[in-house]
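Continuing the batch. This is chain 6 of the set; chains 1 through 5 are on the previous pages. Same settings as before, nothing changed between runs. Recording input and output for traceability.
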Amino acid sequence: MIIPIRCMTCGKPVAHLWEEYQKDVKKGKKGPEVLTRLGLERYCCRSLFLTHVDLVPKIGQFKK
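Output for chain 6:
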């Protein structure tokens, strides 16, 4: 799935933070620390990032 543009609960725009979050996590930083640095303080926004699974590469395998 693609990250939602806004948080489904509070409506805060979050999609623009996804790439930066991914880069920092791949560098070895812990997820909660990165979310705090990005300004995601609410539990709803944080859970959106921590539980998101990127399925685009897997779905792309079936494209003709």
